[in-house]
Structure formats: C-alpha cells, structure tokens
Design goal:
This protein is an alpha+beta fold. Strand 38 and strand 39 form a beta hairpin. Helix 4 packs parallel to helix 5 and helix 8 packs parallel to helix 9. The two termini are about 40 Å apart. The N terminus is likely disordered.
Length: about 700
C-alpha cells in the first residue's frame, strides 16, 4: 500500500508551514509531479451509504522525486469542488480524500487524510467546500480536475460516458471493467506504474483495467499492492504431493511445532488436521486458522460448521474472511491463498484446501495436489507474514471470529467419500533437499497480470519448457453465460501459452476432466481442443490433455494449479479464470535453484501425462475460426474427414444461419465473411453439431 501520510504527519507539516510563514503560492515545479492517483466513483450499495456520493473517494499522489508544497489547490468534479489545505507532499506519498471517512475506513481498512461530505469521523479533518456543497462523482461518467491556486489545470482524469474532455487528456475516457463479479461498484480507477515509475500521461492507458483485447489489473477499495518479491539464501525444501504423502508431512509439522501455527485458506474440512491442531493447543501452541466464511459464494456446509466449532472449542483462534456488508463486500471477493506458517521458521504452500482430499492420512485416495515446505530462512516467512498481517490484521469488519451465527444447526454427520481408485503412490515419501535456493512470491490480484514479473510473466519469459497443471482454465474471459451471442475477450493465460509455443518452447498442458460443463464454450474441454488445434495448424511443440483419472488412479479431483518453467517449480492456487487473476486473493511461489526439487514434480507430471494419452475414439467436433480461415477438428485432435461436414455462419446480429457454399478444408480463406463478428458451427451427415465458436473479423 502506498499510503504513508498519517494524520500526525499531515498535522505536523501543516503547522510547520504555517509557523514559517510559507508562501501563499504553490511550488511551480509541483505541476510536473502532482497527479490524480485514484478515483472511486461508484460506491457499492451499503448500509453506510445514506445519501448520494457517500462512499466516493479521490486520491492525489506526488509522482516525482522531490517534496512539493501545495497551497490553495482544488479538486473538482462536474458538480463541485474541494479545497486542499497548505501542506507538503513527499515523493511517492498519497493524499486520500473521502466523501465519508466512515465508509472509507470500513472498506479501505485505514482512515482517509481528509473528508469532505460531512463530519462522520471527528479524527479526520474536513475540507473546505467553496460552493458549500460536496462534489458528487457521476456513476455513468465524469471528469475530475486538479487545479492549482491560480485555477490552472494541473491534471485531469476522465471516465465513463463523457465527451468534450479538455487537454491534456488525450483519447477516450477510462472504461470500467464490467465482467461479473468485476462490477463498477467499489472499483478504483488507479494510475499504473511501469516498474517504479508512475505513468504520468493523461490517457486511459495510464490507468487500471486495460482493454478487452489486453486486460490489466483491476483495483477494488482497500486492496493491497504488493510487488513481486524474492528471497535468495540457504534453506531446506521439502517437496510433497497429494494423495501420496502431503497429509502425513503436514501432520508431522504440526506435531513438532514449538510456538505458533497460522493457516490461511479457502476452506477447512479435515477432521484429522483438526485433531492435530487441537492437540497442539493443548501443548501450549498458539494456533490461528483463517478461512473464507462464504466459500464459493455460499454458506458453509453443516459438516464444516460443526468441524470449525470443534476447532474453536479446542482453543483454536478461528478467523473468518466475511462478507460483512452483503455479497462482494470484502476487499478480495474470495480468500483462496493456501499457506501455513509454523514457528516463524517454516512456510508450507499448496494448491489445495485444508480438507481430507488434499491432506489425507490415506495415500491411496484424494486429489492431485502439489505441496512444498520451506524451512530455515526467516526472510521467506516474512514474505508471508506481511500478507497475513494485511489480510487479517487490519481490524476491518470483514475479518471476524466464530460466533453463534456459525454454529451447526444439524448434527455432524460423517459423509461417505464415495468409491476410491486405490491409487498407488507415485511418490511414497516427500523429498527433502537443502542448499541455496530462490523463493519468489506472487500474489493475486496484486501482480498476477504483470507480464514481466508476475504470474503471466512466468509464461511470458519461458524459454525451453512449460509444463502446466490446472484445475480450470477458461478459453476466454468475460460473460460466464453460455449461448451464441456473447461478448468475450481472450484469456491472457491462453494467449501466453500460445506465445510461448510460437517462440519454440515445448508446452504441455494437463487439465481437470471434471471442470467440463454441458454446453459450455470456454471450459477445459474447449481449451484442450483449441490448443491442440492451434498446435496442428501452426506446427507447434504444444499439446494439451484432460487428465485420465481412471488411468492415473486418482480418486479425487485434479485440483493442482502449478507449473514447471525452465527448471523452476511454481506451486499456486490461481486457476485460469478471470476472477482468480483479477479479484480473488491467491498466492503462488516460484522455487528455483535446486534441481532435485523440480525433478520430484516433473516425475509426478509425467506420470499423470502418460496416464492421460488421448483415446482412439473422438469425443466431439469443434470449429475454431481465425482471421483468414476457419479450422475444424475433433476433440481431442484426432484426424477428421473434413468433407463429411457442412459449415454454417451467422452474424451475431442476424437470426439466420448461412451455409457455406464451398467445401471447407483446414486453412481455407472465407472471403464472404471478412468483417464483423460471426459465429460458426460444423454439422456432420448424422446431424452431430460442433461446439459453437465466435470470430471477430
């Protein structure tokens, strides 16, 4: 978080400037550095919002390298303005102006420097309103201006449906990202950085969100902005996996804890782990567990409620990440970072929830997960502790403890896990290695979209090998509904996979076969078909498979979301879904430097890959349109007699399908449908219809 201007510092600077008889004019160089940094135009519907404009906020930043004195400056919207007091703004410091300090503190988890819509917090100074009314930001579009003491325009921000935007703004206004659950409510239009340098140009490209063709980070009120961070040094690494051995490894770590245990994750549902944690409490160990109170947007199961009540009664400090003000009222709409800290000495990171399927005492049944432990380097622990402190230590209303609302209403019933495939562990024991290594922490949504250093950067910088395991990757982002008239845009995960293959990188992709929805146009099955088809068309060293769970013997879910990139291992919670990259709290680590560690996971990947060799019989047919041609193929990429199919086109605004008059072959150029947005399907002589695909020409 950039905010460092505490109230005491502001007050001291104000008093000092007054006592020294400061000039009544602003520093002339400030015009080159002071910028509008953030604008929150649309406050979400909340019990804290009682009147128009409450919840809105504007932030100003010193983007230069020197402190600047400002006096008599104003911030204006289309409906009014506020006057800033005389103050010195240090380099990199942010000044937060809130319509309501009460709303701001609850949603941002710290107090603003000033408020201007009313006195909701006596500790927060009020700004002067020269027009005697608080400025209101129009939800549909507005222009925000920063003016100096002479009324000269210093900076400008335009968003939404506005016209006639004055210079220095250039080009169209900023557009909100509106892709459920990324709604405009509480979306903060934020000026971006290129490395350490702030983007100072007055254009939409300087602000968050990006475009549909190139999506970027989206900010919501109160979110963190941690950079990608790395620690290099001596440490001990343990490579583990589920269902093979992750459970016994975790239970042993808990049993050997001497001072403290902290666990964060999406869900907690392991009876065995609960027993070990309660036993640790009885030994005098401080145990905290932080989980999502509304996993997947729904209530906890009765079994989970009963188990978590058991934790509380056993002395565990249970923290809930809680939608305190209705759906999506938390800073991150889902808590899905999966990690644990033990004794400020050891960190455990995995792809799975804290459930029996991921951490089982039975190595013959469970999910496929990758899990790693890092021990002996306190600086690694610090990377995780600062995330924990931000997410659970801010004192905001979204973090609360178990109470009567969370008690189970029904008796705790043992659930039947169903049949298991008698999995034979590929890795009966974890592997422990010591030496010099580098651990890199990547967070969502903070830096997932960073195409150089973040999660996308992992793919972007791959040079030789890219092995991807994922529970879910969407073929495209945008509207989640099925149907034929959809607005969607490329999933950058898919784009980076293809870009790596086009650079000559050997790419293999393994996806969960159960993340397949009937009629879906973007799920794992479609991803496999699309990637394999692109590989065939462009002769790429790329192949994708759905995991053959029967062949691998895995009785749970292929829940692993991890990668091997050029000899480095990445263990992550991120899926290839838009929400995972742009709104949820997710976490990944990149481990490099010890080849035996990566070889452990490469062996697991190879086992699952070989067990998932493509079947001889095709499943269905898919048409994939591209600029300059339409390509048709089987899923999963079995050869197809193209002459047995008829191809139909339909413009997205036209209710009628048009049959293609010529016999299609792979790579044909369709001159009749060069412009516009078209849907395409293929139908064989038996009437079997391919998946519907959309092409923008």
């Amino acid at each position: 978080m950039l905010r460092r201007l505490l109230a005491a510092t502001m007050a001291a600077a104000l008093v000092a400037s007054l006592l020294t008889g400061c000039s009544t004019h602003s520093d002339p160089e400030a015009a080159n550095d002071i910028r509008i940094y953030q604008v929150l135009p649309v406050a979400r519907k909340s019990k804290l919002v009682r009147a128009e404009g409450e919840g809105e906020a504007i932030a100003v930043i010193n983007g230069g390298t020197k402190p600047h004195l400002i006096t008599g400056w104003t911030v204006a919207t289309g409906s009014g303005k506020v006057v800033l007091p005389t103050l010195t703004l240090e380099p990199g410091k942010v000044l937060y102006l809130a319509h309501s300090a009460e709303y701001f503190k609850n949603y941002w988890s710290f107090s603003p420097d000033f408020e201007y819509g009313g006195d909701t917090d006596k500790a927060v100074p009020d700004l002067k309103l020269p027009d005697h009314k608080a400025p209101i930001l129009n939800d549909n579009g507005d222009i925000v201006r920063l003016l100096d003491d002479n009324g000269a325009l210093i900076d400008i921000l335009a968003y939404g449906s506005v016209t006639g935007i004055p210079a220095p703004w250039a080009g169209p206004p900023i557009a909100f990202v509106n892709s459920d659950p990324l709604t405009p409510a509480n979306q903060v239009l934020t000026r971006l950085r290129d490395g350490a340098k702030l983007r100072l140009a007055s254009t939409a490209a300087s602000f968050s969100g990006g475009t549909q063709s190139r999506p970027e980070r989206v900010y919501f009120a109160g979110q963190s902005d941690f950079p990608v961070a790395a620690v290099t040094g001596n440490m001990t690494l343990t490579a583990a996996s589920a269902p093979d051995n992750a459970g016994p490894m975790l239970f042993d770590m808990v049993d050997k804890a001497k001072k403290s245990i902290r666990i964060a994750g999406h869900q907690f549902g392991s009876q065995v782990l609960a027993d070990h944690l309660i036993a640790a409490v009885k030994r005098g160990i401080k145990v905290q567990v932080a989980v999502d109170r509304d996993p997947g947007g729904g209530d906890l199961s009765e079994a989970d409620k009963a188990l978590q009540e058991k934790l509380v009664k056993g002395g565990v400090d249970l923290l809930y990440y809680f939608n305190w003000d209705g759906a999506l009222s938390t800073r991150f709409n889902s808590l899905n970072s999966q990690y644990a800290m033990i004794d400020d000495d050891t960190v455990l990171v995995g792809s799975g929830n804290w459930a029996e399927a991921a951490y089982s005492s039975d190595p013959t049944c469970g999910n496929r997960e990758w899990v790693a432990a890092i021990k002996g380097n306190p600086d690694v622990v610090k990377l995780f502790k600062e995330v924990w402190d931000f997410d659970f230590g801010s004192g905001g209303p979204e973090v609360r403890r178990f109470d009567q609302r969370d008690r189970a209403l029904l008796p705790d019933e043992k659930t039947d896990p169903g049949p298991c495939f008698l999995y034979t562990p590929v890795k009966p024991s974890p592997l422990t290695v010591s030496g010099q290594a580098t651990i890199t922490r990547i967070l969502s949504p903070d830096n997932t979209m960073d195409r150089q250093k973040g999660f996308l950067g992992l793919l972007h910088n791959a040079k030789h090998e890219l092995l991807i395991s994922a529970s879910s990757i969407n073929l495209w982002w945008g509207a989640a509904a099925t149907g034929e008239n959809l607005t969607h845009y490329p999933d950058p995960y898919i784009e980076e996979i293809l870009a790596a293959a086009r650079r000559g990188v050997t790419v293999k992709v393994l996806l969960d076969p159960r993340s397949v929805q009937a009629g879906s146009q973007r799920d794992n099955q479609q991803v496999v078909a699309y990637l394999n088809l692109m590989a065939k068309i462009e002769n790429l060293k790329l192949e994708a498979r759905l995991v053959n769970m029967d062949g691998a013997g895995i009785g749970g879910t292929y829940h692993n979301n991890s990668l091997i990139v050029d000899g480095a291992t990445v263990i992550a919670s991120m899926t290839g879904q838009e929400n995972s990259f742009r709104y949820a709290r997710e976490l990944a680590i990149k481990v490099e430097g010890l080849s035996a560690f990566t070889d452990y996971y490469r062996g697991l990947f190879q086992y699952d890959w070989e067990a998932s060799a493509r079947p001889n019989q095709p499943w269905q047919v898919m048409a994939v349109p591209r600029q300059g041609g339409t390509f048709i193929d089987w899923i999963p990429n079995v050869e197809l007699d193209i002459a047995a199919y008829e191809v139909y086109y339909k413009r997205d605004t036209d209710p009628n399908w048009q049959k293609l008059g010529t016999t299609p072959v792979p790579g044909f150029r369709d001159e009749a449908h060069e412009t516009g947005t078209w849907g395409v399907v293929a139908v064989n002589k038996a009437g079997a219809r391919s998946g519907y695909a959309l092409v923008h020409r």
